[in-house]
Structure to design on (591 residues):
């Protein structure tokens, strides 16, 4: 009997009891769907950390560089306008859409509090941030203007952003600490009156946490795959004993033990693979739903997709072997007599 | 594989070698048993089900094997059908020594050389008549077109040409047994073994089936061995062997 024929016999045996086949697959389906969703979420979170780090702060003329934010229309303000505390603004897409629907806002005037500001430019669209806040619902003005016009001429900045060359963040941090201590007249031994947060360390720590989470979630999902595999084995054993007589008939008309083994093994592989594919679909769909409805960022990795196919097949072979072997080892005489 | 068997010796040549030894009957030997023992061991207790049986059955014979339960007739049938192997002795089927064959080799012998007819029909459930008859040919790797031809021919032979699409449980007992007979014949076996073929049938249907088996034997020359405890059924055979305590009591 050719492999094709064996496949046909297996497929027929499976379709005979569809509901049971589905229940059998459920463990694998849930396991694979969980693995896919978890890994997608983990990867999404990791990728997001990098993005989040590159967008924070209050601003001078260099903010488009510091925040990696492009100007979609018009220009940003320059150093001259920061020095002179000019009443100029760059607005986000949401603000532009709400205040100037269908009109180019560049050159128009907007009112912030009681003061008019001239719109110099419109920022490119950024969308929601990880917490769901609309990053485009923003107006950016020079810090000097805010100090002068809103804070009654207070001449200090609350915070600043420094972008270091890649890999030089630690060195930059040391330099800035020295500079600030010098400017603030802090003597050696006295504590800093400022705080520096190094986001590259923050990012690393976050990435590590995410890595640990991904591993943890993946191992939980693996356990559910294992449980799914045991379920497959259980049902295959039931199936072998239920079909003992049938196996006997096949043997009496010429099925070799090995052909019986391959047939049952194939059945368990098909069950697992089908479960894996359904699980993959659910996992991908679930990740997509999380992104669409909850704005959680997810990222589907090709490795996870490959694993969703390879692992179930391995589980099918591993947990299907014993029941298949049991079927193949049946004595045709006793199998034929089995009630 | 058997160590006694020359790989180059084809079944036909083997059969020729056998017949040349026997002057009284020139027909080919289908079954040749030489001192067949079957001993079952449970713990320290040994039980001999067959006590050194020697037997020759030739092509075209219709043999009924009778005997009380426990006489060894089922054990003999299992060995003849290559479902089991003897503890000792030689079994040549169509000239080939199959007594030491492995399970896989015995499966091939059952597939190509032997057709089975069982008391409870043993058709594959939830599987159409057509597919039931097709199954042995799938294991024999018969081509699709040839399978279809043989299935139609077999259905015609057993007299149920219109039942190809039916499921076994939609058929009467007699019809199911006809399907089983068709299945037993499609691979053109050297030997058809029937185990109480009418045990589950009413007397009128039993007669029909027995008459049909007799006709198959006489017109198509099919070699038939039938195990039965029914004297009337045995009347249809051309030769009757009676077993008792694992030995042949009478053979005529």
């Amino acid at each position: 009997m050719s492999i094709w024929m064996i496949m046909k016999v297996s497929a027929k045996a499976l379709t005979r009891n569809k509901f049971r086949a589905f229940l059998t697959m459920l463990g694998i389906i849930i396991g694979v769907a969980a693995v896919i969703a978890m890994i997608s979420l983990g990867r999404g979170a990791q990728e997001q950390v990098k993005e989040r780090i590159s967008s924070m702060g209050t601003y001078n003329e260099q903010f488009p560089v510091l925040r990696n934010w492009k100007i979609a229309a018009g220009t940003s303000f320059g150093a001259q306008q920061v020095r002179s505390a000019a009443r100029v603004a760059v607005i986000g897409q949401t603000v532009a859409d709400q205040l100037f629907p269908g009109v180019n806002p560049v050159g128009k005037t907007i009112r912030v509090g009681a003061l008019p500001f001239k719109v110099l430019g419109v920022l490119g669209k950024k969308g929601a941030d990880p917490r769901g806040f609309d990053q485009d619902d923003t107006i950016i003005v020079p810090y000097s203007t805010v100090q002068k016009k809103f804070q009654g001429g207070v001449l200090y900045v609350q915070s600043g952003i420094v972008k270091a060359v890649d890999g030089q963040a630690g060195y930059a941090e040391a330099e800035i600490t020295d500079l600030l201590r010098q400017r603030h007249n802090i003597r050696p031994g006295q504590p800093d009156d400022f705080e520096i947060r190094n986001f590259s360390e923050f990012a690393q720590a976050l990435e590590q946490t995410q890595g640990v989470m991904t591993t943890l979630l993946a191992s939980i999902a693996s356990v559910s795959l294992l449980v799914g595999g045991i379920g497959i084995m259980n049902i295959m054993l039931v199936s072998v004993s239920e079909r003992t007589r049938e196996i006997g008939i096949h043997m009496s008309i010429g099925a070799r033990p090995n052909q019986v083994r391959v047939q049952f093994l194939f059945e368990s592989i098909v069950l697992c693979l089908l479960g894996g594919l359904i699980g993959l679909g659910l996992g991908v769909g679930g990740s997509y739903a999380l992104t669409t409805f909850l704005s959680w960022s997810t990222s589907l990795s090709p490795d996870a997709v490959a694993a969703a196919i390879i692992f179930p097949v391995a589980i099918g072979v591993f947990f299907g072997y014993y029941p298949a072997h049991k079927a193949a080892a049946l004595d045709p005489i006793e199998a034929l007599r089995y009630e | 594989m058997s160590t006694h068997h020359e790989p180059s010796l084809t079944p036909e040549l083997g059969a020729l070698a056998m017949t040349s030894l026997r002057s009284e009957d020139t027909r080919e030997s289908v079954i040749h048993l030489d001192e067949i023992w079957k001993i079952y061991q449970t713990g320290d207790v040994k039980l001999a089900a067959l006590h050194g049986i020697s037997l020759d059955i030739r092509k075209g014979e219709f043999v009924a094997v009778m005997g009380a339960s426990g006489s060894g007739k089922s054990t003999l049938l299992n060995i003849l059908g290559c479902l089991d192997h003897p503890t000792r002795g030689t079994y040549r089927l169509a000239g080939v020594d199959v007594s030491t064959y492995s399970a896989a080799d015995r499966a091939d012998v059952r597939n190509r050389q032997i057709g089975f007819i069982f008391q409870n029909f043993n058709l594959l459930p939830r599987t159409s008549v057509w597919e039931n008859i097709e199954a042995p040919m799938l294991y024999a790797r018969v081509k699709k077109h040839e399978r279809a031809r043989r299935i139609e021919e077999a259905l015609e032979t057993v007299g149920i040409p219109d039942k190809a699409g039916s499921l076994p449980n939609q058929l009467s007992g007699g019809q199911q047994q006809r399907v089983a007979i068709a299945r037993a014949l499609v691979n053109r076996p050297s030997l058809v073994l029937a185990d109480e073929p009418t045990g589950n049938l009413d007397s009128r249907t039993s007669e029909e089936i027995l008459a049909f088996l007799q006709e198959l034997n006489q017109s198509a020359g099919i070699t038939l061995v039938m195990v039965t405890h029914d004297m009337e059924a045995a009347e249809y055979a051309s030769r009757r062997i009676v077993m008792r305590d694992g030995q042949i009591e009478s053979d005529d």
The CA atoms of residues 240 and 326 of chain A lie 8 Å apart. Residues 53-57 of chain A have pLDDT under 50 and may be disordered.
